[in-house]
Amino acid sequence: MNIALIGYGKMGKAIEEIAIKKGHRIVLKIDLDNKNELTIANLQKADVVIEFTGPETAADNIYRCMDAGIPVISGSTGWLSKLAVVQNYCTEKKGSFLYASNFSIGVNLFFELNKKLAALMANFPEYSVTIEETHHTQKKDAPSGTAITLAEQVINKVPHKSSWINDAAASDSQLSIVSKRIDPAPGTHVVKYKSAIDDIEIIHTAHNRMGFASGALMAAEFIRKRKGIFTMKDVLNIS
To answer: What are the helix (H) ranges across 184-239?
Structure first.
């Protein structure tokens, strides 16, 4: 499989390492220094595009891939206000698109566990719920996309929570997300339910970036010959 990487930072390099070991080829690498090479012709050398950039450029990068007719997966965070528009564009172009706030297989299983626990806790308002996420100091966004996904899942299941805040909650209806930036942490997420009697916690801790990179490559292999809009639930066959 020929792969184009848009974003060649630490994640892009980790994806490249795993892809080459699996016999794939990296035919295009786009970073800040060669943005002019992000052309339709260059993209069409690839079977699939893996996009990991920032909130300022993600949507435009994805549009360019769809214009080129190449399946694209994106793990960029901080741009989701444009997600619905991007998905509509994908449908218009009859393209292939997969977005995930986190490509780690473990994290996506953690998402399912989070939804199940939140559903169980919905009838027990005596438990307050908070989310804490810890990442390295170079992470650009806070809270993390993963923490936002976890928070939205809780809000969807727990009736007395209606919004999240990246601070201490000012009211019972708010879900507090605490963001910590400590080197060299690759990523830890904690969902904690606390009462006067006991605490219940679920925790996911990444040991390195390889879990994210492996999941991104799995998603690229999945979407290569498919049309439509997908999620990691499709990749992992989670019903």
So the answer is: 210-223, 232-235
Determine contact, residues 18/220, Cβ cutoff 8 Å.
no
Q: Which amino acid is located at 161 in the chain?
A: K
The number of domains in the chain is: 2
- Cα dihedral 11, 17, 106, 180 sign: negative
Two structure tokens written together for 30: 């786009």
Closest Cα partner for 75 from 239, 238, 225, 223? Answer: 223
Q: What residues make up the domain containing 226?
A: 2-103+210-235
pTM of the model: 0.84
Cβ-proximal residues to 160 (8 Å cutoff; 6+ apart), any chain: 125, 172, 173
If asked whether residues 214 and 99 sit together in one domain, one would say yes
Q: Are residues 58 and 136 in the same domain?
A: no
CA atoms within 13 A on the CB side of 127: 22
CA within 13 Å, CB half, 113: 15
Model confidence pLDDT, tens digit, residues 192-217: 999 999 999 999 999 988 889 999 99
Instruction: Write out pLDDT tens, residues 28-64.
Output: 999 999 999 999 999 999 999 999 998 999 999 999 9
Residues 128 and 165 in one domain: yes
Say if residue 197 is in the same domain as residue 111. yes
Which positions are catalytic?
A: 135, 139
Question: Measured in whole angstroms, how far is the alpha carbon of residue 89 from the centre of its chain?
Answer: 20
